[in-house]
Amino acid sequence: MPFDLASRLAERRAAHLYRQRPLLDGPQGPLVRVDGRELLAFCSNDYLGLANHPEVIAAMRAGAEQWGVGGGASHLVIGHSTPHHQLEEALAEFTGRPRALLFSTGYMANLAAVTALVGQGDTVLEDRLNHASLLDAGLLSGARFSRYLHNDAVSLAKRLDKAEGNTLVVSDGVFSMDGDLADLPALCAEARSKGAWVMVDDAHGCGPLGATGGGIVEHFGLGLDDVPVLVGTLGKAFGTAGAFVAGSEELIETLIQFARPYIYTTSQPPAVACASLKSLELLRTESWRRDHLNQLIARFRQGAAEIGLSLMASPTPIQPILVGDSERALKLSALLKERGLLVGAIRPPTVPVGGARLRVTLSAAHSEAQLEQLLEALAECWPQVQADA
Ligand SMILES: *Cc1c(COP(=O)(O)O)cnc(C)c1O
After folding, report:
1. Exposed / middle / buried, residue 146 (Cβ in 10 Å: 0-12, 13-18, 19+)
2. Which of 176, 267, 279, 314 is catalytic?
């Protein structure tokens, strides 16, 4: 019996690291039915509340009527249809980049961009806390791979000095488990001075950040020369599915020619692109969602500080409560669930050992009253897990 899966699973369970999938019985929204119970959820990445927006649903329905369901083939064969093309043009305009290329998932966009740009003899430098898809992409590329200290331009500079070949510096824009912003002005300046390129994965900034939702590059005012490779995803604040890489004409043509995760996969259903086009329009023009979200973020941080919760340095809708121990994080999540609230406990290996946390995420779809409900429940439950410490 070479595969002892039962012991592997038992070990994971014993370490309080076993994962289970809550079964959602209905659309995304603040109020969800999960495992047969109605709960108030603070764990979705639908930051602007667009995943169940009537106009986005209507756009997808109309898209299916006009374009059918399946993408049919890869983009290079016969799968690249008008809605995909229109979405790429709209995303290029939105990001202020010459071109954008559409992917079915962010994971694939990251694999594609990194592996098409660097290989053997090159160097890829990544923030230690980067998303798993970026770390996987770096390893898959075959380039020399090194991780610098979180958000640390000095640590990056040391590695840049030793880098060989084409060098790609890769960072999350908003760190997915901490909610903090990449210090892009410093990191980009360092990379530029050494002739390296910067790639930013702005899965969590695109939509919530920036005056028009343009994400971290809009927030810091960074152009193509600072961030030659910009990735955004559509499954989070856009409320739909897919991702894009935005950059120069040559970058996009390089991906079309050489990126295997782009070439060897079926295009996303065109109706999904129709939905994303509608989301993009709502997200750019209706800034009240960002304003409301920012009010919720400020109120949460103020309320959490009063309770004495250990928050992280996050100005974004990702507001983790650091617990430390996995078992206590699970307990806090369970206590909240007893009170009708759903907040996921994030444990290693998704976060560093000893860094278990409740990943609270806020959405423009939450009301102020719902946020107060969360704060009241936390005020009751937090002392109970503190007593176990
Ligand atoms: C979610 C996420 C991805 C993956 O995007 P999908 O479209 O869900 O595959 C990539 N990078 C970061 C930082 C993410 O949070």
Report:
1. middle
2. 176
